[in-house]
Amino acid sequence: MNYFFKFAAPQLLLLSAIVLLVAICSWFYARKIKYKYPLTNLISNYLVQNKVGIRNYARPILFILRLITCLLLVFLLARPQLIDYYSKIKVDGIDIILALDVSGSMQLYDSEHEKRSRFEIAKAEALKFIDQRENDAMGLVVFGKYAVSRCPLTLDKKILEKIIAELQLGFINPNGTVLAQALVTAANRLQHSKAKSKVIILLTDGKPTPEDIQPGLALKLLQELKIKVYTIAIGDLRGAYIDTFFGRQAVPVELDLDLLERIARETGGQSFLAKNTRELKQIYQKIDQLEKVEHNSDVFTNSYELAWVFLLIIISLILLELGLRNFIWRSIN
């Protein structure tokens, strides 16, 4: 196990630190009201002189205790966490790898009036799907001319969402569509999964290019590992559009629906065709109805809240300060 410390809400550190600094400055510069009583002052001075310079160390100790308590309160607001970078935990879900096409054709538009490209729509709907699968370990594979594992199985959805949100066309060579290689890469990420249900969601808008491996080899591996594949073909068979210097121009669409249907059928999944944003959203909603099972899953980043530890320390420091101030150094104001 590889642990590291982090704050879940680091933005609160700066705000809390500013408030704390203002409070400390106010405490130092505030003018305190003092009442002078000659007799009590005489007695107090006599007692202090016979306590071997108690004021020389009592006040700093009490101040340091109060300061540490305030600093820990600041840390507490920022939600301190201990992160186990790699661990096994029990989750109620399935293991899912998203295989996303990032080839050049994903920059096309399926409507003359569409403001977002296929790639932008695919990213947006994938992010919504991730939010719905709170208890599922998920990962990401992207493919163009090559297939790359971009994120391993993880329950840290913020990391996965950040990777997808920052993903851009051109991250890998877009001149190709190695569909079968993408399935093999995704299968490698799932081969050690102990989940009873392992799923790949493959989204593409093209057909395999010559540099791709034979689909039969990928299918054999998927069947051996008992991985279910849901294929999504994105694009309107009537044609698509691309932005050029002369405006938006029509281009033909190439989709191998027969191959995608075969992959889904032989692995126990389903095949879908999304012509627009609404249909893609409906497809993800249908896939979201997958049966959930309980299993132990290898996941990256498991967080443990440390708020209770900080709270116990804060309470102990407050009790210590009160004890010192009221029972040992009662003469210190």
Write up this protein.
By secondary structure, the protein is α/β, with parallel strands linked by helices. The protein folds into 2 domains: 3-83 and 302-328, no CATH class; 94-292, Rossmann fold (3-Layer(aba) Sandwich), CATH 3.40.50. Helices cover 44% and strands 24% of the residues. The chain contains 10 helices and 11 strands. The protein has helices at 11-29, 38-49, 55-77, 118-132, 157-166, 179-190, 215-224, 257-267, 277-287, 307-328; strands spanning 3-7, 80-92, 95-101, 137-143, 147-154, 198-204, 227-234, 240-244, 247-251, 271-274, 294-305. The strands form 3 sheets. Strands 5-4-3-6-7-10 form a 6-stranded mixed β-sheet, with helices on both faces. It has a 3-stranded antiparallel β-sheet with strand order 1-2-11. A two-stranded antiparallel sheet has the order 8-9. Helix 7 (215-224) packs parallel to helix 8 (257-267). The mean pLDDT is 81.
